[in-house]
């Protein structure tokens, strides 16, 4: 008959935070090892893809690693992926260019009315 295994934590319920695996110790005894939840990698806020260069950790573990490991060295690093950053910068540039063009056209029309 199989050996009985006793719980190590107080909660007996089969919840996601209380998953366990039966492990045989070097002494031949069977014990429960509680399994941590899997970490999901941080996602881009615009397109939702996983951010490369940032480790997938549980939320509390980000407090223990340095800022250098939590970000990428560019604008929106650690928040947006490279492609979305490129799109944002390009969009901002084109909006500013459109404002300048609008202003130039307006001054040309005013100059034409004065003549």
Overall morphology: rod-shaped
Characterize the quaternary organization of these chains. Answer: single chain
The largest sheet has its strands arranged as 1-2
Coarse structural class:
alpha+beta
Stretches with pLDDT under 50, minimum 5 residues: none
- Count the E strands: 2
The end-to-end distance, rounded to whole angstroms, is 105 Å
Q: Indicate the radius of gyration in whole angstroms.
A: 28 Å
Number of domains: 2
Quick one: biggest sheet?
A: 2 strands, antiparallel
Q: How many DSSP helices?
A: 2
Helix fraction, binned, reads 25-40%
Order of helices and strands: EEHH
Write down the overall mean pLDDT.
Answer: 94
Instruction: Tell me what portion of residues adopts beta-strand conformation.
Output: 5-15%
Which short descriptors sum up this protein?
115 residues; alpha+beta; 2 domains; two-stranded antiparallel ribbon; 32% helix; rod-shaped
Q: What does this protein look like?
A:
This protein is of the alpha+beta class and 115 residues long. It folds into two domains: 1-37, no CATH class; 38-114, no CATH class. 32% of the residues lie in helices and 9% in strands. The protein is built from two helices and two strands; from the N terminus they run E-E-H-H. It has helices spanning 67-70, 82-114, and strands at 20-24, 30-34. Strands 1-2 form a two-stranded antiparallel ribbon. Strand 1 and strand 2 form a beta hairpin. The chain is rod-shaped.
